[in-house]
Amino acid sequence: MHDKSKIISENKKRLLIFDKKYDPYTGEGSLLDREKVFFSDVGANLYLPKSMINENEFVYDLLKSGNFQDYSQQKESDISTILAAFDKIRFEHDFEYWAIQTVIIQHKETLQDYKLKLRLAQQVLLYELEKMRLAGVPIRIVLLKARQWGGSTLVQMYMFWIQQIHRVNWHLAVCAQDDGAARNISEMYRRASTSYPEAIAEIQYKPYAGSSKNIINIERGGIIGVGSINNPDQFRSFNYPMIHVSEPGVWEDTPKRTAGQLVASLRSTVSKEPMTLVILESTAKGVGTFFHNEWLSAEKEESAYKAVFIPWFKIEMYKLPITDYSRFIDGMNEYDWFCWERGATLEGINWYNIHKTGENYDDWQMYNEFPTTAEEAFVASGQRYFAPKLTINARKNVTKPKFRGTIHPTDCKNKADIKQSHFVGTPRGPLEVWKMPKPLVRVKGVLHHCVNRYCIFGDIGGVSDGADFSSLTVIDRYWMHLGGWPELAADWHGHLDQDLFAWVAAQLGHLYDNALLALETNSLRKEKSAGDHFLTILDNIKDHYDNIFIRNQMDSTQKDWLPKYGFHTNQGSKDMILSTLRAGLRDDQFIERQGSACDEYEWFERKKDGSLGAIDGKNDDKVITRAGSYWLAMKYMPPVKLIPYVTPEERREKRKSRNAIISEATL
Hints:
39% of the residues lie in helices and 18% in strands. By secondary structure, the protein is of the alpha/beta class. The chain has an 8-stranded mixed sheet, sandwiched between helices. Strands 14-13-15-20-19-18-21 form a 7-stranded mixed sheet.
């Protein structure tokens, strides 16, 4: 049962975030780092950016005087001159103040002009932009967004602010998904420039180099180039310090150009100086795309970009009032609680459900248009095999491996070589290890051998161009004997000749205490360019590794029974192992450790013909090996057992005692 009083109390706190006072004229309520000051002749508190106070001698002296009037007398200057100087300095440090004073934009729905007062979600994005600018580093952001909160508007006006206030000859480019979107962006800049207060600055543009789509600011020299992916040529032969790539998540690749190629050519012109800017901003349309890959790299901190995501419940318009909180809480379903746990208000959840029903949206459409998490946003279609909440859950346990390397010897040929196997650390090796082999465990001070602890499932790929990766998943079942669940121990992933890969699998099995080893046999037939080895590979290693999965069980009535080594995948067996894994992820009964495997969960789907696999252009090797090894761990192998460990010396002594007893008995 949920404590309703605590939930209602917490909900009030969450609502306060939306209801807090926000005044860009005074700076109150801003998310930026500010300091409260008071001027007696203003008669109100101002909240000025700390950079403005710390970096400017004029402001420092003004604050010491306490008011504008006294300071003007000290300097023997007209007060209007002092106020104008103060505003000019504040414009340089305070985007929110500059925006409310100078920028007029048009509301998309009402078509009414209004001053740019930032919404909460826009303030969140501005915080990230300003953190980079003030740190003196290049501004680089991948922005994943829900609908209709003004993210692209903020980006465009932020670039306009840098052009108009901070830099001369500082060009910007905006590349949209189509010509219509490009025209709308051009109109936004036109409106902002024509409505700019003449008392602050006069802005005049003229076509640049005869182009109707590229204009240049006569006073400050900044070019504004706006176009679309359909007409990318206009961006060439310019160097743009600032680039806004709008909606690359929905760009369609063609044989002549891809989203990745166009963005690469655009951002190659941007230097890495302070105040340069590259922002990739989009809603998400599926996984495996250029934008999805950029997002994952930023999210994992593997690129220079900051990943910024704005969920629907951080957008103030997405709320509807509730008349009876108690009744509403009683009626909340599993997904409602999922949203609540991630920070949504009850009013937001109410809006979500009513909007979903009113628009006749299914779950997948809501995930795409109004994502609760970044993972949800990249839902490819209604046929996604692993629901977003499953992959989100799996990512909770992702950690960096404790070891990365390979296995030696690399030319293993027999049982003696297998017994010499050992790990060798290399920074780019195909093997990642989270739990090193540990066949012996100490329980209550006594060493035990943990039997049936490890299992391995392998999917054999090839070495030709376009071949699948070969993959091995090692699972540790230790905690199952105490009521726990299997967890990932190690992962091998790379390209290798099929026969060599089979030996690597045997070596890895040996290192993990003679683990049960199941290799999928279907892939042995697919990679013809690497040789049709399926009749010999497993037969070769079976004489040197004695714990290989056998798919046909011995029947006492069959005198000519021969074992069939390896796991045979057909539609039935594939559904079986995958559904087992899906249930394990759903019920928190499998501990995943690897982020790249979670990525594969994201783009694994049921296709129109009913088959299961990765979306076009992506791999699913780790999904298959996870599913196979998890099925072995949960459904096939006997229970884990702890057997008191007997040292070789103790065994010899016992053998001597037993032999002595036998000898004495025969006398």
